[in-house]
Amino acid sequence: MVRRFAEAIACYEKAGALMETDYVTAGMLVSCYRAVGDEEGALRAARRSLARAERIVAHEPVNGSAMSFAVSALAALGEAERAKEWAARAMLLDPDNLNMRYNFACMLVLELHDHEGALDILDPLFQLVGIDALKWSQSDVDLDAIRDHPRFKAMIAAADARLAQSS
Q1: Between 1.10.10, 1.10.20, 2.60.40, 1.25.40, what CATH number should domain 5-166 receive?
Q2: Using CA atoms, how far apart are residues 84 and 14, in angstroms rounded to an integer?
Q3: Is residue 141 scored above 90 in pLDDT?
């Protein structure tokens, strides 16, 4: 959230080395490496995240979290069609997983450059998110490309207003 990517890379690399089943840290590394301009590091992290997520999904076929990281990794590796197939399957198996949907929106922005598709996915999420998720989305580097989009600004403003009323 504070965009200290070099420090985040060191922490995520260490955490990922400690647990070979951890697909999340490898997936987070993709964004961090991209933020510092290290495309090879991003591809390495995507391959690692995909391998780990695929192992989890093989044993837990409805694990939306693992599926979302696999989708993002596939897209980062240039396998757009396979990523779309996995995303469609994940949405059928775990349709209420808001975090998974958020990750799909990030993948659409970053990897497939489908800003309208990402906004379509984010719109219903912003009607439900709490303050922590809202703050995350306001600083998430993955969403930088749509940050100035009028729809994105309107969604943030509406979520802010909704949360202010509930306080």
Answers
A1: 1.25.40
A2: 31
A3: no
